[in-house]
Amino acid sequence: METMRILVTGASGYIGSRLVAALLDDGHQVIAAGREPRKFDSYGWRDRVDVVALDAGDAESVSAALSAAGAVDVLYYLVHGIGATDFREADNRAAANVAAAAAAAGVGRIVYLGGFVPDGDELSEHLASRAEVAEALHVPGGAEVVWLGAAMIIGAGSTSFEMLRYTGDRFVLMPMPRWARHPIDPISIRDVLYYLVAAAKPEVRAGAYDICGPTTTTYGELMHTYARLAGSWRAGVQVRGVDTAVLSRLTAVALPVPGGLAADLVASLDYPMTASEHRLSDQVPDPAGGLLGIEEAIRRSLVVNEPAPVDRLADPHHLADTDAAWAGGDTLRIQRLAATVTPPFARPALGLLAAVPKPVAGALRVGLDALADLFPKSTPPEAS
Known about the structure:
Blueprint: E1 5-9, H1 14-25, E2 29-34, E3 50-53, H2 59-69, E4 74-77, H3 87-105, E5 109-115, H4 125-136, E6 144-150, E7 153-154, H5 159-170, E8 173-176, E9 183-184, E10 187-188, H6 189-199, E11 207-210, E12 217-218, H7 219-229, E13 235-238, H8 244-254, H9 259-267, H10 294-301, H11 330-339, H12 358-372
Parallel strand pairs: 1-2, 1-4, 2-3, 4-5, 5-6, 6-11, 7-10, 8-13
Antiparallel strand pairs: 9-12
Helix pairs in contact: 1-6, 2-3, 3-4, 5-7, 7-10, 8-9, 11-12
Pfam families: NAD_binding_10
Protein name: NAD(P)H-binding protein
Domain NAD(P)-binding: 10-116
């Protein structure tokens, strides 16, 4: 196997942090890039990677980062500003900055993970931005680009999975808007990482490819499948006459996911999200044992254990200790909040909170979060 020198932008994110671990396991030299390099000190792989400061929105910062990184064979572009104001324009500018600097530095290949782009002239801001970013990464004389498109990624810590989790946990009657009947091709985080690592290799030709799991479902079926596997009985209730834009804002309020991020993702649900016929699986063999089905991926994502360093996860579907603090479910959040005021000898008893019904836990969490916001932030005690 050829060892490559690989720079990962967005290395502190959900995908990026796991990708760094996967690339290291594959024997590559990795450079982690981010706006705040000191943030990487909390990642389990920190002592095995080089680190550079890179703000994709600042052309000078990007050029300085590529210069500091030295020779780079492959650059992974995992930067996005979804959820922020005017993210579409900012994302296009960031991609153009990285593409220009990569061309000047002689980077051979850029691997970009975006989303499916459905047919049609009227796309959501999120979906349109993903396609525009791919276009901005192509510059004359620049690096070749491998663009991978994916729909929902199943794994604890993934924003789309966490939205599915909180919808299934908090609502006894799950809302089923018209888009709940739209088809979708989800993919497990394990298989996303497998395809991302493969995309760096020269055997994969430059171009645009979709990646997906082995099963097509619908949003509604996916919500019911989650609820069943999570041990909850849930009925669906048809939601009629509610505009998707309005529903996206309501979702942002109802779920503990950053408001702008949740709203932008929900706005994209108005479209079927199925893979095109141009798939990476045509060039890359399936992983050992085959691609994971929806139920197996959800089961793995629901495993309850203490979040571990991202490079020491028993399974990439599990929650890492560097994943977003709002991820992992209401019970975990309540346990973390309770641990800040519970003596170490009594903390094992916090496991009993798992018996609290999920909708009740959701309501309790809302109250505790509101209460926590009233007090100055302090460093929570370490778990025993």
